[in-house]
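Friendly challenge for the regulars: who can give me the structure tokens for this chain first? No prize, just bragging rights.
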Amino acid sequence: MHPLFKNRFHAGHLLARRLLAYAARQDVLVLALPRGGVPVAYRVARALAAPLDILMVRKLGLPSQPEYALGAVSGEGMCLLRLDKIKSSGTEMATVRALIDRERAELSRRELLYRAGKPALPLHDKIVILVDDGIATGSSMCMAIRAARRMKPAKIIVAVPVAPRTGRKTLIRIADEVVCLHSPFPFTSVGEWYADFRQVSDDIVMTLLEKRWKQVNRARAEHGRVAVHGSR
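First reply, four minutes later:
Bragging rights claimed.
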């Protein structure tokens, strides 16, 4: 087994090729799930000439096994619990409540840091492409879909480089479209399909968001100048 992706940017480049039908449309927004989804989404947004924003969700990982998801929370205060996993793991509800409080605090910290005073982009009547670096349990992406639905977009597309077959089937049921480059069986982890899967830092997230924001504003200014000159 060899990694399919050099790094998250490479994965985003390949993923964008499958989304070119949505390129250069005024009604398309790319939303990244921080932190790992941001480099992937940056490449997708740039290829599609679309704005980039973030959708804050956090997995509730089992304290002794963080990759084992007991549910997820969103920045809007929504909470999705996997009661079967909570019961089978023997986790007490007091522990779950403590996890929820901790992850909500982290969501608040990231929201303030990453947005740097910029408001969230409105999703109403937009085609929203939700991007992450991969799906393991699917809890975070399911939470992201539910949170986005509340803002009444025209369509929700999930775009990920890799996901297990079971997780992909779950997403197909609740998203309007799912674009996934690879669904291996058996599936062990997202990171095994990347040559470089080092953790994405807060600084990288902020740098990429700011960079794409400036690119979009520059393109809009150029388009405005062309429109003005063309009307003369």
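The longest strand covers residues 65-74. The helical segments are 8-17, 37-48, 83-89, 93-115, 139-149, 165-174, 202-230. Your move, everyone else.
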